[in-house]
């Protein structure tokens, strides 16, 4: 990894760090932090990275690509992307407070899973929908104190409203499931 201190200062950040990741030549994830206390890691396209997890330790938000579902791990390896479970493991190793999964393959169904800290084992664990009946549930359950949500094209979220995302994503996932059921019944 390499720091970009001068650039960080120009942007008003306390940290701007690039971490080399495996995807294409010179691919890098980034970690940003602000003097007011917020912090963010963004994986970009990549295979899972222990270096990213270590460098991003304790970030508030980890945005990680999850192009493939776990049952397509061989595709993820050959195309140098991550599965949902791999992305969640990186976020768990980083102890990220909130994980946003993104960059889903358009060839496969929509949302993966949502999870809020109140969805712990006593509350029934993760809500898994649409992509696979076993969709990264183990990895989500392992990150018991984390919030996990799925991004979608055009999604924008204000930092101060991150805590509202699990409830919203639960509704979005329910909409996808209802839409898929409608299509099955009505063609």
TrEMBL record:
<dbReference type="GO" id="GO:0005739">
    <property type="term" value="C:mitochondrion"/>
</dbReference>
<protein>
    <recommendedName>
        <fullName>ribonuclease Z</fullName>
        <ecNumber>3.1.26.11</ecNumber>
    </recommendedName>
</protein>
<dbReference type="GO" id="GO:0042781">
    <property type="term" value="F:3'-tRNA processing endoribonuclease activity"/>
</dbReference>
<keyword id="KW-0862">Zinc</keyword>
<dbReference type="InterPro" id="IPR047151">
    <property type="entry name" value="RNZ2-like"/>
</dbReference>
<keyword id="KW-0255">Endonuclease</keyword>
<keyword id="KW-0819">tRNA processing</keyword>
<comment type="similarity">
    <text>Belongs to the RNase Z family.</text>
</comment>
<keyword id="KW-0378">Hydrolase</keyword>
<keyword id="KW-0540">Nuclease</keyword>
<dbReference type="GO" id="GO:1990180">
    <property type="term" value="P:mitochondrial tRNA 3'-end processing"/>
</dbReference>
<keyword id="KW-0479">Metal-binding</keyword>
<dbReference type="InterPro" id="IPR036866">
    <property type="entry name" value="RibonucZ/Hydroxyglut_hydro"/>
</dbReference>
<dbReference type="GO" id="GO:0046872">
    <property type="term" value="F:metal ion binding"/>
</dbReference>
